[in-house]
Automatic annotation (TrEMBL):
Organism, as annotated: Ancylomarina euxinus
Domain of life: Bacteria
Keywords: DNA-binding, Transcription, Transcription regulation
Organismal lineage: Bacteria, Pseudomonadati, Bacteroidota, Bacteroidia, Marinilabiliales
GO MF annotation terms: DNA binding
Family indicated by similarity: Belongs to the BlaI transcriptional regulatory family.
Keyword presence, Transcription regulation: yes
UniProt-listed InterPro entries: BlaI_family, WH-like_DNA-bd_sf, WH_DNA-bd_sf
GO biological process, one term: negative regulation of DNA-templated transcription
Protein name: BlaI/MecI/CopY family transcriptional regulator
Length: 121
């Protein structure tokens, strides 16, 4: 999966939150409303080339929609980080959070309990 720039990720967040949109609708919802329509349109087409967005045609205009869910993007992005920085070990990720005190013992116990419950299902 290709990486997204910060601006591309902002656009994807809007598609995930709002659903299908025309570029003019996206322009109204985009935080930087001074961004020119053509610039935003170019960014949307770039996202389509990367496989993140698709479109349906309505005459000469297109309505765009997310081609990948936010959950799938999150999984693949996290997977890439784990592979690149943690030698593909989720245990190392959890260990880092414990060592940095970003994950408490109670949270770790809850996580273990959730894993055990999922195995029983």
């Amino acid at each position: 999966m290709k990486k997204l720039t910060q601006k591309e990720e902002e656009i994807m967040q809007l598609f995930w939150a709002e659903g299908p949109m025309f570029v003019k609708d996206l322009q109204k919802k985009y935080p930087d409303q001074k961004l020119h329509y053509n610039t935003l349109s170019t960014m949307v087409r770039a996202l389509e080339e990367k496989g993140f967005i698709n479109h349906e045609s309505f005459g000469k205009t297109h309505r765009y929609f997310a081609a990948i869910s936010e959950a799938d993007y999150r999984k693949k992005t996290l997977g890439n980080v784990v592979q690149k920085y943690f030698d593909n070990s989720y245990q190392r990720v959890v260990s880092m959070f414990v060592e940095e005190e970003n994950l408490s013992l109670d949270e770790l116990k809850k996580l273990i309990q959730d894993i055990e419950n999922n195995k029983e299902s």
